[in-house]
Structures are given as structure tokens and as C-alpha cells.
Amino acid sequence: VTFTAAAAAQDAPTDVGQGNVEDVATWLDETGFSDLKKTFAKHVIDGPALREITEEELKELGVKKVGPRKLFGRLLCEALPDCERPDLSAPEGMINVTGFSVAEVGEWLTDEGFGDAAKLFAANQVDGPALLDLNEDELKVELGVNKLGPRRRFARKLCSVMPGCRNPRRADKAAAWSASDVADWLEEKGMGKYKKNFAKHEVDGLTLPDISEEDLKTELGIQEIGLRKRYRLELCALDKSFCQRDREGEGSADLGLGGADLAQYIQRAQQFLQQQGAAGEEAGGEGEVRQIDLGELMKAAMQKRAADEAAKAQDGGSVVAEDGSAAVTDSIEEMQRLANELGAEES
Fold this sequence. Notes:
347 residues, mainly alpha, 17 helices, 52% helix, 0% strand
């Protein structure tokens, strides 16, 4: 697949999702994916089927590289009237990652200490918008960031340039720990037999609290349930702010920040909370919005998104949700409940 900016996408059909196989072929021509027409026709991909296509199916259909798959999803969303994507344009004074070319992504990776992965990112034609839409499996399997520690550091670096995302502040003593310090801590807490696994994955103090229980089991090899629980408890004892990280659950399977879908959940939640505050002021009060760290709000968003994705998985999932707007709207009250619990625990 040739990766192009596909400016002609602005002239795409109003809703290709309602079209036939020939309409899909026309849309592929207009969006720079004309070399997929024969394969799509062979697989009888009409508009309704196009709406439901998954990224795994795109691979099967010949879109092997990460960047073009992300572009395909963005262009499809633009062609569907009921599909919404968040505005990830950078505010004034912030790096505009959405405007990055593939080469500029490579420069950013090198500057942030991920130069070893730059060639694979370039080979997969990952530009700025695709960078913000990566998931952890892509980062690990296709883009060469194989170790857990670097992936968690990547997530933090990406958060620093992603509009609406803010890394939680770290004032604990572990933040400056090296991988060797982490090994000493594991030894002290009775988990020393796994220190080589942590070292292999380059887990340092900065990434220590970003590790989920699933990571402990599948990536770091801690099979004993008791030791996984001990890890969480000792981490909580190390610093109280880490206790809440148990809430992440399976949501940590994603990068923990990136992906336009997660940004959409966060953006809608922020808007909802702001509206509530404004309504409270109009009623003569001070509003009900708590001052909650965005990092905590992100965790609530991740939990709700994980639940939504699990529900969608029963139907095979899709690159673009049929009613993404409704899914986000339905999630807002649950997200605020979780966020309010987090705020109450902090106070």
C-alpha cells in the first residue's frame, strides 16, 4: 500500500458506509488506497462491511504497515457522518505532533532516547497522527519496543506531547531509582528471584508503578499470585499515591494514554465536568467539579474503554465504532463516578 496524505479524501462520498462494492472501490481510489480495490472486491467489501472492518482484517487485506492502517481508519471515520474523532491539534506553545511527518517522528524518537526504534517506525510509515494512535501490541510486536520498561517510558514521553494528557507528578524517592536500585528493592521485599526479569525489561524507578498485575504475570514471569499481590502491596507501602494504580486493571494493555479513542473518552469527560461546574455556578453555587489530576481521570477513562472494547469484542470489534458518540456519552457518568472516588480518596 502506498502511504499518501490523500487530500482527495475531502471529496469522498458522504457516507461510504451505506454504499455497495463499487462505491467502496471509488472511495479507495479517492483516498489513495486504489491498489486495494481488487482485494476488497474479491472479499465482497461493501459499505456496511467496510464500517465493521478491524485492523487485523486490514492486515489480511494487504495493509501490512502500521501507518497506513491508522490512516485508513482516520479517512474512514471522516467518510462516516456518525463517526467522531477528538481534536488533537496542539494548543499554542505546545509541539504539534499531529503535523509531524514520518521523518519528524524519527527525529522525535531519537531526541527522546528511542533512536533504535526509528528505522522500524519509518518502515511502518508512522507519522504524527499515527504516533498518537498507537497501541501497546503495535509498539511491542511491529515497532521494535520489545521491553516493558522502555514501553512505559515511551508512554510517558508521548503523554508529554499529547494534547490533554499530563503525566502524574512524581515526588517519591523511587522516581530516581536505576534498574539496579529496583533489583535491590525486589531482593529486600522477597522477590529477588525475579530481579533478572525486571533488569531484562529495563524497569527503573520511573516505570515501576506503571506495571500492571498482568504485566507482572505475562512479561515479568511472576506466576505466584501471592507474589504479584505482594508487589502491589509493597509498592503501595513505598508511596501512598501508588495504591490507586491497582484500579487500572486490564486497561493497561494499551499504552495507557495514546490512541485517539482514549483521547476521545478523556476529552468528552473533561467537557462534561466543565459543563457541570458551569451549571453549578449558574445555580448560585461554586460548581461540583473536583480538582482531579488528569492522570487519575485517564485511569477512569481506560477502565471504561476496556469495558466498552470487551463488549465490542463479542461482535468482532471495528476500526471505527458504529456509534462512537453514543458510546462515549454513555461512559461519562461512570467515568465521573470513578473520578469522584479517586478525588475523595485524595482528600
